[in-house]
């Protein structure tokens, strides 16, 4: 028998024109190309369709290994320029991200510290991860999906400038946290912010060392713009994590609608 008594938590954000995006990425756009009544069949039926334009890094999305390079090399030592000839990546594109079905762990760092949200520019360290694990009564192991709740979207998500947070800085994992995750060989890491890692006030994306450690050096995918509020309210810290990226050939990322499944 296949169990069907799961409670399902939807961790994806809606995609619409107002969806916040980081500078350098295009906004989501959708337009109806055909409306009901434009063409009507002899039996009276009709259909509608649309055109969608988006980046692989708009809304809730997963980063492919092709997304980041260091000294001209992407994950596995592939030459970034050669790999991207022909207007798409020949290796490590979004189509290479296998569907994810694994144990998930929520690290609600804000709640573990008795906060609704972490302060702007707050670094989540390896020590913070360990303290939150103790507070939640969980352990992190190989193959896990580790999701960080900072609380940053609360009161900010509807304001793109505030959510992106370049002037103020944004909380998130730092380099010690990234190496801690890499040492434990987690499968994927995600957060409720737009850049995953911490950003200093005014620094923007001038350096993103956590992306380098995870995507380039360690082969760990990153998921950003997660909606973790319902999981946090219910204090669900362990679950079955499911996410299936689109097979976008040669793309550097993909929209994704992750789910957390918990036995009812």
Overview of this protein structure:
By secondary structure, the chain is of the alpha/beta class. It has one domain (6-12, 57-263): Glucose Oxidase, domain 1. 19% of the residues lie in helices and 24% in strands. It has seven helices and 15 strands. It has helices at 80-83, 109-112, 126-136, 160-164, 175-183, 209-218, 229-234; strands spanning 6-10, 29-34, 49-53, 61-63, 73-74, 78-79, 100-108, 123-124, 145-149, 172-173, 188-191, 221-224, 238-243, 253-255, 259-263. It has a nine-stranded mixed sheet with strand order 1-15-13-7-9-11-12-4-14. The chain has a two-stranded antiparallel ribbon with strand order 2-3. Strands 5-6 form a two-stranded antiparallel sheet. Helix 5 runs parallel beside helix 6. The longest helix is centred in the middle third of the chain and has 11 residues, at 126-136. It is globular. The two termini are 16 Å apart. The model has no long low-confidence stretch (mean pLDDT 97).
Quick recap:
The protein has 264 residues and is an alpha/beta fold. It is 19% helix and 24% strand.
Counting structural domains, the number is 1
CATH A-level architecture: 3-Layer(bba) Sandwich
Helix % is: 10-25%
| End-to-end gap | 16 Å
Average pLDDT, all residues: 97
Sequence stretches where pLDDT stays below 50 over 5 or more residues: none
User: Helix-strand pattern, N to C?
Assistant: EEEEEEHEHEHEHEHEHEHEEE
The largest pleated sheet is described as:
9 strands, mixed
**Helix- and strand-based class?**
alpha/beta
What characteristic shape results from the CA principal axes? Answer: globular
Strand content: 15-25%
Number of strands: 15
Number of continuous helical runs: 7
Radius of gyration: 19 Å
The CATH class is Alpha Beta
CATH superfamily: Putative cyclase
CATH topology name:
Glucose Oxidase, domain 1
Strand order of the largest sheet: 1-15-13-7-9-11-12-4-14
């Amino acid at each position: 028998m296949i169990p069907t008594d799961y409670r399902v938590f939807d961790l994806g954000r809606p995609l619409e024109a107002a969806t916040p995006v980081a500078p350098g990425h295009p906004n989501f756009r959708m337009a109806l190309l055909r409306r009901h009544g434009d063409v009507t069949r002899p039996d009276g039926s009709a259909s509608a369709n649309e055109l969608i334009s988006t980046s692989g890094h708009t809304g809730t999305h997963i980063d492919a290994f092709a997304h980041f390079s260091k000294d001209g090399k992407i994950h596995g030592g592939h030459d970034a320029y050669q790999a991207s000839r022909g207007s798409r990546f020949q290796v490590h594109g979004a189509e290479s991200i296998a569907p994810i079905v694994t144990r998930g762990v929520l690290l609600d760092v804000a709640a573990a510290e008795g906060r609704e949200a972490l302060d702007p520019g707050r670094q989540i360290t390896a020590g913070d991860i360990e303290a939150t694990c103790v507070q939640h009564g969980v352990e992190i192991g190989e193959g896990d999906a580790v999701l960080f709740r900072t609380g940053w979207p609360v009161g900010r998500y509807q304001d793109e400038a505030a959510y992106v947070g370049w002037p103020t800085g944004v909380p998130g994992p730092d380099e010690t946290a990234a190496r801690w995750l890499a040492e434990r060989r987690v499968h994927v890491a995600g957060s409720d912010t737009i850049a995953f890692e911490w950003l200093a006030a005014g620094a923007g994306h001038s350096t993103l060392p956590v992306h380098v450690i995870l995507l380039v050096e360690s082969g760990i995918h990153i998921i950003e713009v997660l909606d973790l509020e319902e999981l946090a309210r219910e204090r669900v810290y362990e679950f079955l994590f499911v996410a299936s990226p689109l097979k976008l050939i040669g793309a550097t990322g993909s929209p994704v609608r992750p789910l957390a499944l918990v036995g009812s």
